[in-house]
Design goal:
By secondary structure, the protein is an all-beta fold. It is built from two helices and 23 strands.
Length: 343
């Protein structure tokens, strides 16, 4: 049996990371799942979904590690679940042709509820009163000292989606895939404030049920692979989706519960929307055969070819000068050159 060794030498022009799989368009997503102490979690469920195709794969971590191989280039959503811990969902993961993405996650314990949260102001006449205030004061502690208990609310997610996919390959030289998803993901208030409700005594208020942080209504993903003459291979991937939601807050502790997650009256959780996303990535490769067992492959890649400003991290604090403005953006145009030697 012949053993094939390969080494990769990568020269970066404008970026600093590249991974490639030999002679295939598929890639990998892998990483480590830990708790707050950094210890690996065994048995955590990791689920990966392609909104463009509706395809879903699932695995469980071993010593904190997980890995998905053979993934076609597309836009992905990764979801993690583990009993007693808050679920994690990360969307907008764009896997390029022959890409390899490492995603590490740190999970936190489940919902934390302060059982000594100040009573509703309507009950106390507008003053701050905590249920165990007298007993705590008698012990020399602050009357509103936080007394926490943990609950797991990981299943309170409502998901609806319609996925369409068109895929075709012509004569072995040209292939394409086009996927579109219309979806809706709703949950109880989460995100920046964890699972802390706006009202500690009414966890499931109607206005606290709204779009999840990854609720992107429209997703479009397309990729094209073309085999050119002289052993040149070209590939392209286009990703577009509508804006993700973010929360509108007053920027102050209106109900005096020590948590600044209050929204204006009548405003639903995650009621605001950011800007849409559009990305185009291109890849060109050329393979040179030195003999029957050795070859050199030259790889040129470009990301965000049109240098579009894809804005993110919108500020929903109405007291801030940057209210409803983006505070960051996804990477601009990047290009990189790689050389792969197989022997």
């Amino acid at each position: 049996m012949r053993v094939v060794h390969s080494c990769l030498v990568t020269a970066l022009l404008l970026s600093a990371l590249f991974s490639a799989e030999a002679q295939t368009t598929t890639g990998s997503i892998l990483g480590e799942v830990t708790d707050s102490s950094g210890a690996g979690l065994t048995g955590a469920t990791v689920r990966i979904t392609s909104p463009g195709t509706g395809a879903t794969r699932q695995t469980q971590t071993s010593a904190g590690m997980y890995q998905f191989d053979g993934l076609p280039p597309a836009d992905y959503v990764v979801t993690l679940e583990f009993p007693g811990f808050r679920p994690i969902t990360r969307s907008g993961i764009v896997l390029p042709i022959q890409g390899r993405i490492k995603l590490d996650f740190q999970m936190e314990v489940g919902e934390i509820q302060n059982v000594n949260a100040p009573l509703p102001l309507g009950v106390t006449g507008g003053t701050r009163v905590c249920p165990f205030g007298d007993a705590l004061r008698a012990k020399g502690l602050p009357e509103c000292f936080q007394m926490q208990m943990q609950n797991d609310q990981s299943d309170r997610i409502h998901l609806n989606a319609l996925a369409l996919k068109l895929e075709r390959r012509f004569s072995g030289r040209v292939g394409f895939m086009l996927g579109y998803t219309l979806g809706s993901v709703k949950t109880w208030s989460t995100g920046t404030f964890g699972n802390v409700p706006t009202d500690a005594y009414d966890k499931f208020r109607d206005l606290d049920f709204g779009p999840s942080d990854n609720d992107v209504r429209h997703r479009l993903t397309g990729n094209l692979v073309y085999q050119l003459p002289f052993r040149f291979n070209a590939g392209a991937i286009v990703t577009a989706n509508s804006g993700a939601p973010y929360n509108h807050t007053t920027g102050q502790d209106d109900n005096l519960d020590f948590v600044n997650n209050d929204r204006p009256a009548g405003v639903r959780f995650n009621s605001l929307r950011g800007a849409p996303l559009f990305l185009t990535d291109l890849r060109l490769t050329k393979k040179l055969f030195l003999d029957k067992t050795r070859n050199v492959e030259v790889i040129w890649e470009m990301f965000n070819v049109f240098n579009r400003a894809n804005l993110s991290d919108y500020n929903g604090n109405e007291r801030a000068a940057t209210f409803r403005q983006a505070r960051s953006a996804l990477p601009p145009f990047q290009g990189q050159l790689g050389v792969r030697l197989t022997f």
